[in-house]
Amino acid sequence: MNAFDDTLHRALARIRGQALPVRTSSGLAPDPEVTIGISTIKIVTEEQIQAIAFGPLDTEPTVVVRLDPIGRDVTDMLPFARFIEATVQRSIVADAPMRIWIPHAVTLEALDVLGHRYWRNQQAPAEIVRMGEICRIIAHEATIP
After folding, report:
1. Which residues 6+ apart lie within 8 Å of 34 measured at CB?
2. What is the DSSP letter of 39?
3. What is the rounded distance in angstroms from the CA atom of residue 132 to the CA atom of residue 36?
4. Number of H helices, E strands in the chain
5. Which residue in 120, 110, 16 sits closest to 138, CA to CA?
6. CA 40, CA 18: separation in Å to the nearest integer?
7. Does some domain include residue 119?
8. Torsions phi, psi of 32, nearest 5?
9. How far apart (Å, rounded) are the C-alpha atoms in residues 99 and 101?
10. Which domain holds residue 56?
11. Contact status, residue 83 vs residue 90, Cβ threshold 8 Å
12. Domain presence at residue 64
């Protein structure tokens, strides 16, 4: 891709709010020490997460299934909130990059909605609020080309 095409694709990605995958052989590298995966299943007609799977890529994922995803009780999301906060802290302490593998755009959208729903929710536990902040950061970072 020449410089003009590259600039054009980056501008279009920015306008659309999408990430632009840039693939070069020099850009390929092994995953950093702090690498996790997150996947969600959401209720189609509602912007609610029905289930979320998460964890390091080299182990079986932890799966949280929400029995009442439309309800106001979010304590079922605490395992994910604790995991994501611990992962971020591990990355900070190690002064190492963190990579998050997400299988599809629907999961990214679900994390963005989750972030917006809880990052300033004064009724939610502090761990859930922090999870919301982190989810917003993940969603925002994905839009940066």
Report:
1. 87, 90, 91, 94, 96, 97, 98, 99
2. E
3. 17
4. 4, 4
5. 110
6. 19
7. yes
8. -70, 170
9. 7
10. 32-142
11. no
12. yes
Burial of 90 (0-12, 13-18, 19+ CB in 10 A): middle
pTM recorded for the entire structure = 0.78
**Is position 109 within any domain?**
yes
- Only one residue has tokens 């002064």, namely 95
**Residue 119's CB: how many other CB atoms inside 10 A?**
18
Is residue 65 helix, strand or coil? strand
Burial track 94-118 (b if 16+ CB lie within 10 A, e otherwise): eeeebbbebeeeebbebbbbbbebb
Specify if 13 maps to a domain.
no
pLDDT in the model for residue 98? 92
In 1-145, alpha helices (H): 3-16, 78-94, 105-118, 126-142
**Total number of domains in the chain:** 1
Per-residue pLDDT reduced to its tens digit, 20-67? 665 544 456 788 889 999 999 988 777 789 999 999 999 999 999 998
